[in-house]
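Collaboration report, partner site 2.

Our partner group contributed sequences for two proteins of shared interest, and the home lab folded both. The records are reproduced in the order in which they were received, starting with the first partner submission.
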Amino acid sequence: MGFELPTRPGPRPETTECAPHEQVSQNSTPEVHALFKRRAFELPFVERRPSGISVPGAEALVLPAPHACGPREAFMVGREFAHVHPAHDGSSHLMLPLPAVEELIAKGWGEPHPMARLGHIPATAVMAFAPRDAAEVDVMLRLLTTSFEFARGKLANPAPIHLHD
């Protein structure tokens, strides 16, 4: 896949161990969070909706049916492939191909979703930590774009599989 991230500087943020899975330290400033959300929802075809699976206030990135051609493990629920948590948290949950999951964890940008660790949901489900500055917003957008391409069927699954709500 040729996906490589820089190493995230500093210690890992603190997160909760169960639902709701939240980041509780090293959160984004309101300005950085707003920048990330603005840029995240600029991806083509993406519909901005309340998350179908996350906490109140989380905003989902959803693909219209004609563009949701990825494998089942590229989606959380329906055609939602990622969501951004509210500003007090700032992290995101997204679905990534397994090589990108390994890179995300190895370089300190995120962690497996607790339900994925338990085997209840696909191992493709991860938390990406909240960006702390504009440079980290760029890294988060690379992760989000990888999730977007996975959901579109452009990574690891070239055969179209249409999912319907």
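Second partner submission, folded after the first:
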Amino acid sequence: MIPDTMNAMVLTAHGDLDVYEWHTDWPVPKPESREVLIEVKATGMNNTDVNTRSGWYSKAVEDATTGGAFETVGEEDPSWGGAPITFPRIQGADVCGIVVAVGPDADATLIGKRVITDNWLRDWSDPMDRNKTGYFGSEADGGFAQYTKIDERNVGVIDNDMTDAELATFSCSYSTAEGMLVRADVGAGDTVLVTGASGGVGGALVQLAKRRGATVVALASEAKHADVAKCGPDAILPRAPANLKSALREAIGRDTVDVVADIVGGPYFGTVIDALARGGRYTCSGAIAGPIVSLDLRTFYLRDLTFTGSTVVPPHVFRDLVGYINRGEVKPMLAATYPLKDLKTAQQVFIDKVHTGNIVVVP
């Protein structure tokens, strides 16, 4: 029996953690057309939850992602897509759960299946048009609740013995990472430098680049090296070596890399760019240490570098990821699990970045 109401953590405005409200009587969504209703078992936390809440995506903000409220947030561009989101909003993109009902035009055989969500909401008549996309938990309610709904084309059926919490670590982080590697055309023979390797996307980058046959050098704080090593990098260096080229030479026998996969940005940006070999590629999907950086354009063009931003991923990325998961080709990096009611505490722990991997909430 599906209830009429549910528990939900609801975002009411841009601001600090106090803009979240806990509700025990929020309406359970009703699946329409090709939508499925999912009973949420676990939902992963991501930087986009923090950035959307705080309004960090606004170009009026130039600071690092502290997780706190900002004094000035542009009214017209505080979300990843450059347009305001509507409140109240239930965040949470990385859902693992059981399909319990379907809309009138959806596949009824999905009922009872354990699924994870593809978070890119598309116009399915034109799925490659990035201008027609939204994000689950941003432009539509997500999984910080007992139930959520999404288009049937946005779920992947899981067939393995991982726990629900482990499965909730994959979708956002690993799709983001795979999208970056697709954009940078990473393959066997490449040497890839991964910044922020102790985070969810960073750990995914290490695993997925290794899966492609690349040599991987991870940057992470030394206290987290043992955990990062579980992802299988070829070398692990401190988060920001004073002499990166020297550290690379000692670790892998060369002082340049073919690809930088960056989710950090900030003041170390110029250093990692200087470590790119001629013809190298830089791909970015985050700037947690600060979005405003300095670039010497002579380095960019004289060394024939290619820069790619990566946000909206092609539809095949999620389908590929589900295959990797079901075949055991990637592993979860679950740092901690919290009750959904304690989301504020869990998000503060996430912001503090003492953990390695992903934090998950369960309803």
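Feedback sent to the partner group on the second submission included the following. The chain has two domains: 5-169+332-362, 180-309. The domain at 180-309 is CATH 3.40.50.720 (Rossmann fold).
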